[in-house]
Amino acid sequence: MPLRRSVMTLVLSVALLCAVPAAVPSTAPAVSARTAARPEPGGTRGRPAGAWPVPTGTVTAPDGRTLFTDRNGRVLRLRGLNLGKTDTVTERHIARLARDGFDLMRLNIQWEKVEPHRHRHDTRYLRYLDRVLGWADRYRVLVLIDWHQDVFGPAFGHNGIPAWATRTDGLPFEPNPDDWFADYFQPAVQAAFTHLYDDPDLRAAQAAVYARVATALRGHPSLLGYDLFNEPFGPVPGDPDNPEDRIRASAALERGRLAAMYRRLIRAVRAADPNAWLFLEPTVLVGQGVPTSLPGFHDPRPGAGRLGYAPHSYDTAVESGADWNPADRFIEHYEAAIGGYPTAHRLPVLVGEWGPPQATTPGNAELIRGQVASMDRFASGWALWYDCRATNGSGYCAYGPNGGPAPGKEPAFAPYAPVVAGIPHADAYTQPTGTYTLTLTADATTRHAWTFLSLPTTAFPHGARVSVTGAGPAVVVAAGPGRAGLLLPAAGPGATVRVTATARRPMPAGVPRPGGGFRHDARSVDRTDVSVAPPSASAAPTRG
Question: What does DSSP assign to residue 410?
Answer without folding.
Answer: G
